[in-house]
Automatic annotation (TrEMBL):
SUPFAM superfamilies: PLP-binding barrel
Protein family membership: Belongs to the pyridoxal phosphate-binding protein YggS/PROSC family.
Protein's name according to its UniProt entry: Pyridoxal phosphate homeostasis protein
Functional description taken from the UniProt entry: Pyridoxal 5'-phosphate (PLP)-binding protein, which is involved in PLP homeostasis.
Modified residues (N6-(pyridoxal phosphate)lysine): K33
Keywords linked to the UniProt accession: Pyridoxal phosphate
InterPro entries documented for this protein: Ala_racemase_N, PLP-binding_barrel, PyrdxlP_homeostasis
Length: 217
């Protein structure tokens, strides 16, 4: 049983409907960082397959070898990546959402080439231009996106953002959508436990929900 999962799926469906978007246009990424396996397992058993982690090492401990038992598993890195973890990240994750500087782009492209796979990636945009947050500044986004696209081993799918905690998230979601549209990108990873319904209204294709699904960390 995973009652919180049902509640969140229901809320996403309702937000899709209210926004006039087709049912199923938003994917729920269940954020499992710092959560015990006994909370993750029922959610897996209920059919959830997309999971977000923010640390490579922690994700390895939880998910390495899990694909055989759980076909269709999709692992998404949503936390900052260091170049010295690029190899492990490229091997473990299906999607890396946090590309934010040339050195990490180069390191991931190298590892993806080595693995012979087209690595799916998103660019993280620091929509609030906060010093404490990673992500490219909005004014640098177009040039950075063009740079990511120069690497054949990387498949750029879209953009991701984490709005400042003390601001209305809607304007940040709208900005991310504008940047994605301008660059012909279809994936928008935005919205967390407190604001995922607003994010759906502004076009999110992926919402990243942790505490509302698993409880406080
Ligand atoms: C932890 C985290 C989330 C989930 O946050 P909740 O508020 O617990 O839903 C989403 N996105 C990122 C990047 C995170 O680090």
């Amino acid at each position: 049983m995973a009652p919180a999962l049902d509640r969140i799926r229901f809320a996403i469906n309702r937000a899709e409907r209210l926004a006039g978007r087709p049912p199923g246009s938003v994917t729920l990424t269940a954020v499992t960082k710092q959560q015990p396996w006994e909370k993750v397992l029922p959610v897996l058993q209920a059919g959830q397959r997309a999971f977000g982690e923010n640390r490579v090492q922690e994700a390895l401990g939880r998910w390495e070898g899990a694909r055989e038992a759980w076909p269709g598993l999709e692992l998404r890195l949503i936390g900052p990546l260091q170049s010295n973890k690029a190899r492990e990240a490229a091997e473990l994750f299906d999607v890396i959402e946090t590309l934010d500087r040339p050195s990490i782009v180069a390191a991931l492209a190298r590892e993806a080439e080595r693995l012979g796979k087209a690595l799916r990636v998103l660019v993280q945009v620091n929509t609030g231009e906060e010093a404490s947050k990673s992500g490219v500044a909005p004014r640098d986004a177009d040039a950075f996106i063009a740079e990511v696209r120069r690497h054949e081993a990387l498949r750029l799918e879209g953009l991701m953002c984490i709005p400042p905690v003390d601001e209305e998230p809607a304007m940040h979601f709208a900005l991310l959508r504008k940047l994605a549209q301008r660059n012909g990108l279809s994936v928008l990873s935005m919205g967390m436990s407190g604001d995922f319904e607003t994010a759906v209204r502004f076009g999110a294709t992926h919402v990243r929900v942790g505490s509302a699904l698993f409880g406080a960390r």
